[in-house]
Amino acid sequence: MTRLVARIKILPAEADTDLDKLVNTLNDKIPKGMELKTHAREPIAFGVNALLGDFLIDDREGQMDMLEESIKNTEGVGEIDVVSVSRQSVRMK
Fold this sequence. Notes:
Blueprint: E1 3-12, H1 19-29, E2 35-45, E3 48-58, H2 63-72, E4 77-87
């Protein structure tokens, strides 16, 4: 089955949210079969950072909705923005 990479920008709920702790929580909260492959901090403003994560999911109906819901329902997450979705074999910039 084809795997997709969903790049999602995650904005913290609070300015002082610990992004390292948030990454660990996300790894526990995302549904089985999905994976947070890589992540990076992206500066927003005034010392506040967003989390930019690449999530691996199966190319099946409903997978993206499940991923988005699990991220939104994670403590410490304010808003999310799906930046891109691509096949895993494609290198995203």
